[in-house]
Structure formats: structure tokens, C-alpha cells
Design brief:
Blueprint lengths: L15 E4 L6 H17 L4 E6 L5 H13 L4 E7 L2 H10 L5 E4 L8 E7 L9 H12 L9 E3 L3 H10 L8 E6 L9 H5 L4 E5 L22 H10 L3 E5 L6 E4 L5 E2 L1 H12 L7 E5 L4 H9 L3 E5 L3 H10 L4 E3 L5 E3 L9 H12 L17 E2 L3 E4 L4 H15 L3 E3 L4 E5 L2 E7 L5 E8 L2 H15 L8
Parallel strand pairs: 2-3, 2-4, 3-6, 7-8, 7-9, 12-13, 12-14
Antiparallel strand pairs: 1-5, 4-5, 9-10, 10-11, 14-15, 16-21, 17-21, 18-19, 19-20, 20-21
Length: about 450
């Protein structure tokens, strides 16, 4: 593997991610495999788990990655085609913490990447990923002959779902939209284990994502789901991302329910049932969520964005539940704390099965704020940090209240502005919220010029 160059920019905040076949390809995958197999042996590990999503490039990257790992002498438990939550559960089920999941989650179809865990702490992030990059470029790899072992986690994963849920008397009709992503291989099977009338759309596994982009928390991607919910007079619509760790929700009227509002429904149901009354959310979530947590007598914990970070913090603080606006949520009350879009959807269906209320009625009395979607602005990976620093300097000069745990969130009495770098691509992202449309417009007019770009990138 000598003289193989590897792009430093694919080593991002939460994972390794790039464009196939330019920055991510089979040679890169094999090199990462050699680096990974050697790296985990440095900390005394000799086995790992590997799975891949349904992107077109995933099988060949998978084979190359495994080839690299095996040649270091590490044994590989090969899961084949699985969702990321199935991969997470396999690590728990087989008691093997190191692993690699080949996926680019909700990114465009030509992207791919690697979610990596070295040990029991879970997905590598931040400095851990940068340390791994530095280890790889040194090129001092172990040599050996590992064993490849094929395993299926599907039955055990289905049993986990059954053991973690108990439905009431109300039977609901639910429309599921896997978006042709990896949940297409298992969503219907899982949901039909329960007393649910299931209607499927976009459920043929196809890594080109022919019907819509596989991000269930961008509302324009849910138009087909909205229409089908209304057409079927269904109680609920659920969508999942490309690798199945995120959920998007549509109510009985075909209206999109952002994840922070989903979290309000869940927390209201959980708060009297759990000992530790504290709940985590990320900086992109509406203040309505913070207001509601306080109203319920619980502790709100605002944290940085990124599922590697939020999931680890929920575990570290021993919280019963947490999540982030992008659709990652973590149940630790009677589940194992990893993010599964299918399970998150089932928890909402289970909750509804014990009440005659509709989803929209469960949200009737929450505080009202107006907000933008998450806006994305294209910058290269160097310039995007300059943008956020410029916003920080401006907000500091104005004496504003600043939360800089992740980018810059400027809080006002009646609204907020958030500008941060994306850790999954060459973008700056922004979101704004206020009590009134007038205030929202004022905040945007103040902060958007600091980003110095005319038009947001399409999401």
C-alpha cells in the first residue's frame, strides 16, 4: 500500500466521508482497513465487526476494507448489508466493540464513508479521527492473517425490538417511507411484528435513491409521504434516512413534525416514568423544547450537534432520553441507547396505541416559535471556519449572550441565531428562530450578511 495518497479532508468531525470514487475508493478503503486493524491491535483488540449500507459503491468498498483488516491479523465478523442500527446492535450482541460501518448516511448518492469505533466508547469523533488519520499516514501496519466470519444479526435485532415494546389496544395505520435506503430491507418485517396496519412507499432497496434524497428531516423530501398519509387516512407517517439511524415524522394531516417536537411528545410521556429527569438536545433545537422540559420540572441539557457526541453524552450523563434536530434520538429507559429510526418510530406508534389522541393533538399547547429550516451555505473546508470565527467576533463585539459549544449560537430574549460548520461536508449551516415573524426577519437580516453568500445551497 505504499505511495497511496489519502485526502485529509475526508477525516471529518464524526466519521470518514467523501465522494466516490475520487476521495473515497477501493484503494483508500483497503488502506483504512490496514490502519484500522493495526490501530485496534495497539489497544489490545483482535476482532471487529463490519457492515455496509445499500449505496452502489458500498459492496466493493466493503470487500476492500475487509481485505485490509484481515491482512493485519484481525478477525472480522462480517454482517453484510445492514442498517447502521443493526451494526450497532451486533457490537452489543456479540460483545465486540471495534467496528466499521460503511455508509454516508443521508449524504448524496455519490458519497460514501466509514463510521468507526475503536473501543467501548462508541463512534470515533473529533480528535480521535484526526489521530487515526495521523496513524494511517505513518504507514506502520501490523501483518498477519485474520479470519473472516459471516454472521446475520437480523433475527436478534427483531427480537430486541419485540422485547423493548408493548402496545396498547388502539391499532394504528402507519405509512413507512424508507426512501429506497437500507431500511427497505427490514422495515416492513419489523413493523409487521406489531399490531400495526403498515403501508409502504419507496421500499425497494436502491442506492441511487431514485424517488427523493434520503434525508427524512428535510421537509421537501417528505412530499410523497405526506400525500400517502392523507390518501390512506393514516394515523402517522414515518421516514428513514439512507442507513436507518434517523427518523422523520408526518402527522395524520400530512404535516411535518420536526424532531424537537417529536421529542416533546416523547418527554411528556417519559418524565413521570424515569428516575433521572433530565433530557439532552442539540443547539439546533427549538426553544420550545427547552421551555417544555422546564415546565415539566425536568432539567434541559443543550449540547453540540453530531450523533457521535450527543449519543456519548446521553450515555455519560446516564440520561433516559436525548436527541438532536437531525432525527437521531436515543432511548435508554428500556432500550440500549443507540439511534434507530425504526425504533424511534415504533416508540411513537406505541405511545399512540394507549391514547385516542391524534399526533397533532399531542402538540396543541406547546410554545409557538417561528423558525427557518437548517440553511446550508457552500464553503470549502478551510474557509468555513473563518466564517464562524467572523460571526463569533461580531457577536462578542456586540456583547450578545453566546453559546459556542458548537459554532456560535446567539440567544436573545425572544429568539436566537445559530451559525456553525458542518462536520459532514464543506458547508456552513445556519438556523434562526424567534417569537414573531418580524423578529425572525430582523435576526436573519443581522446575521446572514456575515456569512457573505447570496443563496443557500440546496439541501
Amino acid at each position: 500500500m505504499e505511495n497511496i495518497k489519502i485526502d485529509k479532508n475526508i477525516f471529518r468531525g464524526y466519521d470518514i466521508r467523501g465522494v466516490y470514487p475520487t476521495t473515497i475508493n477501493e484503494k483508500v478503503a483497503e488502506l483504512i482497513g490496514e490502519g484500522f486493524g493495526s490501530y485496534i491491535q495497539e489497544i489490545g483488540k483482535k476482532q471487529c465487526i463490519v457492515g455496509y449500507d445499500n449505496r452502489i459503491s458500498s459492496p466493493s468498498l466493503y470487500n476492500s476494507l475487509i481485505r485490509g483488516i484481515l491482512k493485519t491479523g484481525v478477525d472480522v465478523i462480517s454482517l453484510g448489508l445492514v442498517t447502521t442500527p443493526m451494526y450497532y446492535y451486533a457490537s452489543i450482541y456479540y460483545k465486540i466493540s471495534p467496528g466499521v460501518m460503511i455508509t454516508a448516511s443521508h449524504n448524496p448518492k455519490d458519497d460514501n464513508g466509514f463510521k468507526i469505533a475503536f473501543d467501548e466508547s462508541g463512534n470515533a469523533k473529533g480528535d480521535e479521527i484526526q489521530d487515526f488519520y495521523r496513524y494511517i499516514i505513518k504507514g506502520k501496519f501490523f501483518s498477519g492473517t485474520g479470519i473472516l466470519i459471516q454472521k446475520s444479526i437480523e433475527e436478534a435485532y427483531a427480537n430486541l425490538m419485540k422485547a423493548s415494546l408493548s402496545f396498547g389496544d388502539r391499532r394504528l395505520k402507519v405509512v413507512l417511507d424508507p426512501g429506497n435506503g437500507t431500511t427497505s430491507i427490514i422495515a416492513k418485517k419489523i413493523y409487521e411484528l406489531f399490531p400495526i396496519d403498515v403501508v409502504m412507499i419507496n421500499d425497494i432497496s436502491d442506492g441511487t435513491f431514485p424517488n427523493h434524497h434520503p434525508d427524512p428531516c428535510v421537509e421537501k423530501n417528505l412530499e410523497q409521504l405526506k400525500q400517502k398519509v392523507k390518501e390512506e387516512k393514516a394515523d402517522l407517517g414515518l421516514a428513514f434516512d439512507g442507513d436507518g439511524d434517523r427518523v422523520g415524522v408526518v402527522d395524520e394531516n400530512g404535516d411535518y413534525i420536526p424532531t424537537d417536537k417529536y421529542m416533546i411528545i416523547i418527554i411528556r410521556n417519559l418524565v413521570e416514568k424515569v428516575r433521572h429527569k433530565a433530557f439532552l438536545y442539540d443547539v439546533k433545537c427549538s426553544r420550545a423544547l427547552e421551555d417544555e422540559i422546564k415546565k415539566l420540572g425536568a432539567k434541559p441539557i443543550c449540547y453540540r450537534t453530531g450523533n457521535s457526541y450527543t449519543k456519548a453524552k446521553v450515555r455519560e450523563l446516564d440520561l433516559p432520553f436525548g436527541g438532536e434536530l437531525s432525527g437521531h434520538v436515543y432511548f435508554r429507559d428500556r432500550f440500549l441507547g443507540f439511534d434507530s429510526g425504526l425504533y424511534a418510530g415504533l416508540r411513537l406508534v406505541e405511545l399512540l396505541s394507549y391514547t385516542q389522541k391524534k399526533v397533532s393533538q399531542l402538540l396543541e399547547d406547546i410554545p409557538i416559535y417561528v423558525s427557518t429550516e437548517e440553511l446550508k451555505f457552500a464553503f470549502d473546508d478551510e474557509a468555513k471556519f473563518d466564517v464562524v470565527n467572523r460571526v463569533l467576533d461580531y457577536a462578542s463585539s456586540k456583547g450578545y449572550k453566546i453559546n459556542n459549544i458548537d459554532g456560535v449560537r446567539v440567544d436573545f430574549d425572544d429568539g436566537w441565531a445559530l451559525i456553525r460548520v458542518s462536520n459532514t461536508g464543506p458547508n456552513v449551516t445556519a438556523r434562526f428562530e424567534a417569537k414573531t415573524e418580524k423578529k425572525l426577519e430582523k435576526i436573519q437580516k443581522e446575521f446572514l450578511p456575515l456569512i457573505e453568500i447570496e443563496k443557500p445551497q440546496e439541501t
